[in-house]
Amino acid sequence: MLEIKGLKKSFKAKEVLKNLNFSIKEGEIVCLLGNNGAGKTTVINCILRMIQADAGSILLDGRDIFTYKNKEYFSEVNALLESSVNVYDYLTGWQNIEYFSGLLNIDSGNEKIKTYISLFELEEAIHEAVGTYSRGMRQKLALLIALMSSPKLLLLDEPTLGLDIQSKLSVIQILNTIIKTEKIAVLLTSHQMDVVQKLQSRILILKDGVVHEFDKTDYEDKDLYMVSFIKDNVPECDTVRGSFQDIYQSYYKKYEILEIRKKERDLEEILLEVFHEND
């Protein structure tokens, strides 16, 4: 689907992308994470052909992206960028859909769009001005518009920024469902680790101009457990290091054990450690 090979980009004396290599398969969500200034926006801008890399190539379905004509390319690639105007306040939700459908040369009355309006829970507000929408409703409408053309590749920059918990969970669930069903390849950037954890995604770390595959299990403490037990008729919980068998034997002799399970480290804590390695 999308393949990036040996991508390099410098701005004056600063080398932002040194030798970027990664790929995304259809139906796969890849979260590209990194500190501010790591080059995430540069990667997105290169894929959107807003800037051209100094070296390397970006292939969509095995074809260099610069061999596509604009209309052809942007019928296959869509984006929802946090810094861009994605919907127009003075239009109703439906008028926004009609406007962008016209640009994409698709029928605004097709069944998929009707299904998405229902899925994003926008039926009641679809004929109201977007300026009256909540932040969550605006974001849902923008996502609907980004998805309605069934792009092969979708770029999402902070798609849940500013949303309340309920709206955020709703958007994550919808994304997971549609992307797998429609087999859309997704590149997502976010600083919200709760979102990254809930998305069915692969994580890439962008640091020092290159990307690294991230596997959370590499950073887990395999001998750290949470023990829930009853002591003097009161539930308690301990964090204990050791083998499961030794911990069980130790607590079994003294207390009523409720549960022994591996203690997982928080993703944000691990990523902070990764970002600051060798600094």
Automatic annotation (TrEMBL):
Pfam families: ABC_tran (PF00005). It comes from the Bacteria. SUPFAM superfamilies: P-loop containing nucleoside triphosphate hydrolases. Gene3D superfamilies: P-loop containing nucleotide triphosphate hydrolases. InterPro entries: AAA+_ATPase, ABC_transporter-like_ATP-bd, ABC_Transporter_VariousFunc, P-loop_NTPase. The keyword Zinc does not apply. Keywords: ATP-binding, Nucleotide-binding, Transport. Residues 2-233 form the ABC transporter domain. SMART domains: AAA. Coiled coil: none annotated. One of its GO terms (molecular function) is ATP hydrolysis activity. This is ABC transporter domain-containing protein.
